[in-house]
Amino acid sequence: MTSVLISAEEILQKGLNAFRFIDARHDLVNHQLGTEQYIKAHIPTAIFLNHETDLCDVKTGKNGRHPLPKREDFANVLMAKGIHIDDDIVVYDADNMMFAAHVWWMLRWMGFANVWVLNGGFKAWQVVGGDVEEGIAPALPPVTWTLRESLVKTVSADEVLKNIQSQQFVLLDARAPERYRGEVEPMDPVAGHIPGAINHPFALNVEADGKMKSPQVLRDAFLPYTQKGLVINQCGSGVTACHNILAMEVAGLHDYALYPGSWSEWVADSTRPVATGE
């Protein structure tokens, strides 16, 4: 176990009762897939959180595809589902942790201190023969707790805009290279990237089996981005950028922030500049 990752074997050793499990499986195109996968099979007692409803605010057309909810509203969602801020929580998705990392980050944003991501996701759990159950897990009784100071940083679109000239921080884009270059754009109305952003696709962080690469490999990959100190992470809608943040944590690099609105918010304002190519 690291400060942010836990293996399927470690969960088996400690026992299911040691943790509260959150199932974060999702698909950015087929929004029903996560629910379907959860109902078919999930880690026993796991609570499902939906990226399109539980984990984002109302979409206005100007605030991106996964706008952060108000902290108080998200706290109410978690409390209603029986998730306590002092629980030891394990978040998982299908395999490569792209959605689990987002939930991990959001819980840290709420002040949750004890949150781990299942390395390799539900696939890794199945490989070790972990128990599963089908259907919807019985609802937990609601709980109450008080919001705590956020454990992570965010920046706004205005701060990113100012940085194009000031170059005070490095902006890291987690999307696939072809989207970054503007050759294709399957999700948003404008193709390209924020001027000055450096492309580090989140897929570079994992091995073929969906597990995170070693801390040293990740440190070697991310250390060059830290020459200005703070590294701002963005992607299409603030989801996969959290994977780069998770990888930085594994690498022992902690000076990072998230631009939650990311590309989908950025291009909603036509006055913001857009770059293409490398």
Automatic annotation (TrEMBL):
<keyword id="KW-0808">Transferase</keyword>
<feature type="domain" description="Rhodanese">
    <location>
        <begin position="15"/>
        <end position="134"/>
    </location>
</feature>
<keyword id="KW-0670">Pyruvate</keyword>
<dbReference type="InterPro" id="IPR036873">
    <property type="entry name" value="Rhodanese-like_dom_sf"/>
</dbReference>
<protein>
    <submittedName>
        <fullName>3-mercaptopyruvate sulfurtransferase</fullName>
    </submittedName>
</protein>
<dbReference type="InterPro" id="IPR001763">
    <property type="entry name" value="Rhodanese-like_dom"/>
</dbReference>
<feature type="domain" description="Rhodanese">
    <location>
        <begin position="165"/>
        <end position="275"/>
    </location>
</feature>
<dbReference type="GO" id="GO:0004792">
    <property type="term" value="F:thiosulfate-cyanide sulfurtransferase activity"/>
</dbReference>
<dbReference type="InterPro" id="IPR045078">
    <property type="entry name" value="TST/MPST-like"/>
</dbReference>
<keyword id="KW-0677">Repeat</keyword>
<dbReference type="Pfam" id="PF00581">
    <property type="entry name" value="Rhodanese"/>
</dbReference>
